[in-house]
Prior knowledge:
With 102 residues, this protein is mostly helical.
Amino acid sequence: MADVDISTGELNASANLASTLAQEFASPVQTALTSATTTSGQLAGWSIAGGLRQLGNGWAAPLGALRQRLTDTAANLHANATSHANNEQAVAGAWSAPQGAK
C-alpha cells in the first residue's frame, strides 16, 4: 500500500485559488453576456441580432454552472483540509494519552 501524505496547507491553497478563479470569472462573463444582449438590441432588424441574443441567453446557464462548480470545489477543498487537520489532531491526541488510559 502506498503512503499518502496530505498537506492541509496545499489543500487550502488550492481552495483559495479555486475561490479566486470563481470571483475573477464573474465579471468578464457578465460583461460578455451583457454585451451580447445589448448589441442584439442595438442591431434589431439585422440577421445577426437573433444569434447574439441566443448567444447571451444560451451561455448564461453553463457559465453560471461553471462558476458555481469552482465555488463548490473551493468549499470542498477547504472542508477536506479541515477534516484532515481534525483527524491528525485526533490521532496525535490518542497517541499522546498515557498508555492504559481510556
